[in-house]
């Protein structure tokens, strides 16, 4: 906090005008012209782990306002948004905007016990709250058809296998059969990892009932006992809140620079309900915030815009809202979009979005290849190996790709495992997740690798400075039709069931 305030003080000294009278605006314009043109080395200077960590400590404090989370609509998230807006406003270098809109929030927990012995279980997004103690009644087939539900399921707990149709349909069919609750068990030995009913309600089928998922292994024990003639009593307890909450993106655009050629950088400000999200995506958010607070020391040729997105974890909601409410002629002014989502993973890799499609065969709009190369050149200049990561649109750059805006970005890895070769390149532990605290409570200050964070922050500064000076290599003709983008072949619905590259199961 201390360091960042001093940056603002420096920036303010440059800008000087305390109120915006006409002569002072003119004066500020003259002063801005005296500033040096932004450069890669200039904007990389003063990137320190002390500054980055000072912001991260603030984010962690904000999460403590709402029980350890910065999920959208929580006090912790609102405090994050206010913090960013206040710091940016204080520079007087940006026109800032809070883009506020309503969205359905859903969070909960489930516990399940059979004849008083606890069975590990998980809640489904949009699953209603409730307390049920009743007999467990297996449902025929995969529970995708009303006829699969026997009459005796009424008032009992419907026991349903995963498979073929959506979770939400099964739960609504259980409700239509007047079941008191439902358990969906995995069709594989492991647990269902993160599940959603997909839609907030399905009145055309039936009412949702309280529901939890359990592993295939746990289900086998239960089904074997029932098959042997036992009558089992299940106790299902679901705590859940589903309600409309207002939430905001923060958009900040430099007052200076060519606004017909905007260089756009973004990251998401929300975490998952399960944790404080200090790496995901505190790290990316703070990376661009820190750059945004240093940029006022310079002048820019092209305008720079920062987007701090809300509700990414509910399916790219904030960035999608921004892009879909943008008039076509405004979208045309955006030259490119740079995304920073998870850039300080503890067992990190230096991954760059594969915008040219060379590694994963998903190519972005023309110019995405140039962005990838700009990042590659940066890592080469630092004698650090980098590797491509799939350009799937499964973070906030997805909506930008949909309207033909070239994009790129950095990523240090989530739940994937580091390979032996990668451990040779980057150190760390092979066979271990890049981020063992991904989407968990332990995604806190100790979950940050500051060496990776500082280098990625410099890479981000390099890309922003490079394009704020010149858009050479980025096509500025009319955007190509979306149909020409390989990435657009992935449906939005497919993408929105991801958050930070992590699949949220819906069936
Ligand atoms: Zn993320």
From TrEMBL:
Taxonomic lineage: Eukaryota, Fungi, Dikarya, Basidiomycota, Agaricomycotina
Gene source species: Coprinellus micaceus (Glistening ink-cap mushroom)
Cofactor annotation: Zn(2+)
Subunit structure: Monomer.
Domain Peptidase M28, residue spans: 249-457
Location (main, coarse): secreted
Family listed: Belongs to the peptidase M28 family. M28A subfamily.
Entry protein name: Peptide hydrolase
Keywords: Aminopeptidase, Glycoprotein, Hydrolase, Metal-binding, Metalloprotease, Protease, Secreted, Signal, Zinc
PA domain residues: 133-222
Signal peptide (from-to): 1-22
SUPFAM superfamilies hit by this protein: PA domain, Zn-dependent exopeptidases
Record GO terms (molecular function): aminopeptidase activity; metal ion binding; metalloexopeptidase activity
Pfam families with a match to the protein in the record: PA, Peptidase_M28
Gene Ontology BP terms: proteolysis
An example Gene Ontology CC term for this record: extracellular region
Keyword Zinc: yes
InterPro entries assigned to the protein according to its UniProt record, in alphabetical order: M28_fam (IPR045175), M28_SGAP-like (IPR041756), PA_dom_sf (IPR046450), PA_domain (IPR003137), Peptidase_M28 (IPR007484)
């Amino acid at each position: 906090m201390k360091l960042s305030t001093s940056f603002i003080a420096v920036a303010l000294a440059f800008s000087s005008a305390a109120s915006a009278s006409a002569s002072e605006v003119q004066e500020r314009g003259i002063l801005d012209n005296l500033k040096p043109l932004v450069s890669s080395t200039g904007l990389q200077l003063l990137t320190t782990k002390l500054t980055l960590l000072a912001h991260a400590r603030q984010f962690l404090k904000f999460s403590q306002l709402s029980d350890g989370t910065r999920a959208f609509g929580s006090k912790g998230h609102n405090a994050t948004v206010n913090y960013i807006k206040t710091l940016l406003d204080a520079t007087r270098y940006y026109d800032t905007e809070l883009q506020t809109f309503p969205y359905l929030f859903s969070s909960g927990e489930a516990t399940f016990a059979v004849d008083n012995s606890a069975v590990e279980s998980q809640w489904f997004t949009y699953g209603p709250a409730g307390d049920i103690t009743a007999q467990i009644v297996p449902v025929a087939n995969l529970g995708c058809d009303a006829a699969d539900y026997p009459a005796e399921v009424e008032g009992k707990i419907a026991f349903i296998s995963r498979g073929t149709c959506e979770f939400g349909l099964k739960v609504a069919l259980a409700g239509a059969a007047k079941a008191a609750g439902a358990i969906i068990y995995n069709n594989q030995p492991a647990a269902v990892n993160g599940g959603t009913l997909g839609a907030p309600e399905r009145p055309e089928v039936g009412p949702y009932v309280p529901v939890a998922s359990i592993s295939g292994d746990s289900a086998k024990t239960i089904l074997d006992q029932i098959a042997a003639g036992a009558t089992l009593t299940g106790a299902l307890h679901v705590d859940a809140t589903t309600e409309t909450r207002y939430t905001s993106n923060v958009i900040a655009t430099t007052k200076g620079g060519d606004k017909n050629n905007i260089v756009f950088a973004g990251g998401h400000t929300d975490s998952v309900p399960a944790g404080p999200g200090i790496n995901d995506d505190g790290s990316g958010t703070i990376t661009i915030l820190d750059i945004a607070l240093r940029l006022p020391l310079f002048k820019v040729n092209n305008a720079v815009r920062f987007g701090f997105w809300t509700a990414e974890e509910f399916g790219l909601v904030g960035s999608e809202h921004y892009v879909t409410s943008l008039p076509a002629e405004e979208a045309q002014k955006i030259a490119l979009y740079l995304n920073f989502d998870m850039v300080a993973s503890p067992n990190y890799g230096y991954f760059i979005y594969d915008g040219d499609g060379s590694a994963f065969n998903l190519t972005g709009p023309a110019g995405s290849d140039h962005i990838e190369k700009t990042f590659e050149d940066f890592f080469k200049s630092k004698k650090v190996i980098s590797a491509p990561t799939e350009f799937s649109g499964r973070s906030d750059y997805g909506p930008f790709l949909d309207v033909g805006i070239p994009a790129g970005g950095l990523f240090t890895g989530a739940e994937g495992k580091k390979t032996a070769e990668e451990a040779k390149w980057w150190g760390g532990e092979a066979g271990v997740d890049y981020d063992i605290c991904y989407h968990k409570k332990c995604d806190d200050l100790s979950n940050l690798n500051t060496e990776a964070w500082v280098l990625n922050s410099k890479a981000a500064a390099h890309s922003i400075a490079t394009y704020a000076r010149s858009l050479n290599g980025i096509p500025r003709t009319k955007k190509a039709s979306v149909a020409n983008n390989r990435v657009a072949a992935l449906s939005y619905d497919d993408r929105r069931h991801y958050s930070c590259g992590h699949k949220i199961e819906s069936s």
